[in-house]
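One-letter codes give the sequence; backbone shape is given numerically. An example follows:

. . .
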Amino acid sequence: MSEHGPIRRGLGDFATTLWDLLHVARNEKPKSSTAGGRPRTAVVDATPPSPARPRGRQQTRYEALVGSMKRRYGLRVVRWRSSTSGCAWTVTYRDGSVARLIESPRPRGPMSCAVFLHEVGHHAIGLGAYRPRCLEEYHAWRWSLETMLELGFNVTDAVRRRRDESLHYAIAKASRRGLKRLPVELVPFLEPRSRAVEPLPALLEAVRGPALLEDPRSVAGETPTTRGASSVAG
């Protein structure tokens, strides 16, 4: 609107105005995102991804051990524990079938391997085959360490000390529950051993031979139908 009346524009005026706007927009240069005015270039990491770390020979042996024990004794691992503790038990179904179950750490070293084989040992010797319970713990530990030696796995001082402490704990627990007579096999573990003293030998008796590696039904007789859990304290 002007003092002489409204300003009239034709179609040509609008076209010229739009063209001018487009022309100016095309001639404008984008602002540089860097201080020096140079256009920013993307940096591409040319380093190839590192390949998956191959499994060591010893870890391959541990995995083969797990598979072998599961097949031989019909075991199922319910859960791999992050701690060095374990548990073994059975479940009897209505059709009479029995499931042999364990929880333990996955074998990755001597200690976890010993605890894993200890839980397998409960099924190998037969849950409830030995009374009192602390005597079964002794034979499960014996089976574990004897199997490790038989198969060429390292039984370290730490593993032997863990066995000593576990059996001393089992004796104390049985005593609190009214144990009157201690089996002769457990006498060496009656008193706690100082960590400054060397642990007891891996085997306190003569090696019994490969019979311990056979199916538990041929070692302990009839498979128990209903058994409670047997555990290793963490």
